[in-house]
Amino acid sequence: MEDGLILLDQEWRIVYANNAARRISRIEPHHINGPSHWELYPETVGTTQEAIYRQSMEQRISLQHEFYHQPFEVWIGLRTTPVPSGIAVHYRNITRQRHDAEEQRRKSEEAERQAAEIETVYRTAPIGLALFDLADFRYLRLNERQAAFFGLKPEEVVGRTLTEMAPIPGLKQLFEQVAAGTPVVNYPLEGELISHPGEHRYWTVNYSPVRAPDGTVQAISAASLEITQQKKAEQALIQSEKLAAAGRMATSISHEINNPLEAVTNLLYLIATADNLSSPTREYVQLAQSELARVSEIATQTLRFYRQAVKPSLVTAEQVITPVVELFRRRLANAQVTVKVELKTEAEFECLEGEIRQVLSNLIANAIDAIREGGQIVFRAHDAVDQATGRRGVRITVADNGAGMSEDTRARVFEPFFTTKELNGTGLGLWISAEIVQRHQGQLSARSSQAPHRHGTVFSLFLPLAQNAQQPY
Ligand code: ADP
Ligand code: MG
């Protein structure tokens, strides 16, 4: 559209207006050399427009101004130029330009915002992100998370190769596949990183070819999510499921065999007390009785473990240790093992007395098994505080100077069915003991040494004075 042009004289009268100006500003013929600009357009009085006209007129300078013309709803761009008789004013409708410029600004702002957003996601996403070159799969770019897999900063990893950082079998082949154009989607990867040897870790990875406009592959982008924690939790769950299943099985087996066992025990007793037995028969019966005693021990051990909890009582260490030592008096004497009991506490703690006795019985039985003739077992009891929770309690230790255990054995003693005694062991004693102690919110741990002059084992049992009310046995 043509620019509007008007000439104003020094009295602010319009002395000339071109066609465009007549149209845009609605200038009638009688307005020429008629009323002043300020009378014709009172809405301009007091605006920047007036200030500019006056400044241009007085100082004889050219000025520019853009403004929104409310009545016509348009943007106007104007320029004043001093002329001998007054000033010339050029103006044009710049609404379209203004809108285009505005649109442009909005678009570039939006683009900037998106870029910043993507950058933030890239830097902070809990996913390792990286870009590799094709030549030897070197890191071109990577985010903090990806670098953190190696315990490094991104700049310390850039330039190093994939296989150098993650020597995982099969990984290079995967990359070769991606370089050839086939993406890898949600692939489970596991192995060790150069930075953490010996640490087996798990990821889910996505690798994609990055293509140039002509379709050729230029780089490889990689997104890796570490799932080691989930994997470990999963494995722990499977393990505890197994334990629970083993426990249920043990319970039902002991239930099933307990009744026939009692009947056979009674029958054997009747046979053994008959007076007309020949001497080999008597020996066989005795043998049968002792074998049966072993079977019933296994059965009662497991059954007792799962029987209904009775009411807990308050006892001292002495009240649980003494009867156990008494119970083993004969076996100790047979094995020529001496026992010492050192009590340094009279504190009363809350427990299921029978169960804690069972734990101590298991410990003393194991100690006797580990000791050769002439050994010694020492029971100690003292007040103690649980380091982890700060709870007060009693600590009972059972120390023997027997053979001791290897580190491998010590690590496994609390597993069900783990025994080094072949057919003479059930591998249930310590497993059950640990479960009992756990239900008492206590702790059971072992130290052991096989060193020639100080071999032996110490089991340490911590029991809190009182249980947290919410957790029943
Ligand atoms: P079991 O006595 O039937 O073998 P336990 O669960 O009681 O089952 O013990 C598991 C294993 O722990 C034993 O076979 C033994 O190897 C080891 N062990 C337990 N206590 C001692 C100890 N005091 N000295 C040496 N080894 C022990
Ligand atoms: Mg045992």
Protein architecture, described:
- There is one protein chain.
- The protein has 473 residues and is α+β, with helices and mostly antiparallel strands.
- It has 4 domains: 4-93, 2-Layer Sandwich (Beta-Lactamase); 125-226, Beta-Lactamase; 228-307, Helix Hairpins, CATH 1.10.287; 312-464, Histidine kinase-like ATPase, C-terminal domain (Heat Shock Protein 90, 2-Layer Sandwich), CATH 3.30.565.10.
- The protein is built from 15 helices and 17 strands.
- The protein has helices at residues 19-24, 37-40, 48-59, 95-124, 144-148, 154-157, 162-165, 171-179, 228-273, 279-306, 317-327, 329-334, 353-370, 407-412, 429-439; strands at 4-9, 14-17, 63-69, 74-83, 86-93, 128-132, 139-142, 184-191, 201-211, 217-226, 313-316, 338-343, 348-351, 376-385, 392-400, 443-449, 456-464.
- It has a 5-stranded antiparallel β-sheet, with helices on both faces. It has a 5-stranded antiparallel β-sheet with strand order 7-6-10-9-8.
- A hairpin with a 6-residue loop joins β14 (376-385) and β15 (392-400).
- It starts with a strand and ends in a 9-residue tail after the last strand.
- The model has no long low-confidence stretch (mean pLDDT 88).
- It binds adenosine-5'-diphosphate and magnesium ion (MG).
Overall 3D form:
elongated
- At the first level of CATH, the class of the largest domain is Alpha Beta
CATH topology of the largest domain: Heat Shock Protein 90
Structural class: alpha+beta
**How much β-strand is present in the residues?**
25-35%
Unreliably modeled segments: none
Sheet bearing the most strands, described? 5 strands, antiparallel
Rg calculated over all Cα atoms: 46 Å
Reported CATH architecture of the largest domain: 2-Layer Sandwich
Mean pLDDT across all amino acids: 88
Please give the alpha-carbon distance between the first and last residues. 93 Å
Bound chemical compounds: adenosine-5'-diphosphate, magnesium ion
Please name the fourth-level CATH homologous superfamily of the largest domain. Answer: Histidine kinase-like ATPase, C-terminal domain
**Strand line-up of the largest beta sheet:** 2-1-5-4-3
Helix content: 40-55%
Count all strands and give the number: 17
| Domain module count | 4
Number of distinct helices: 15
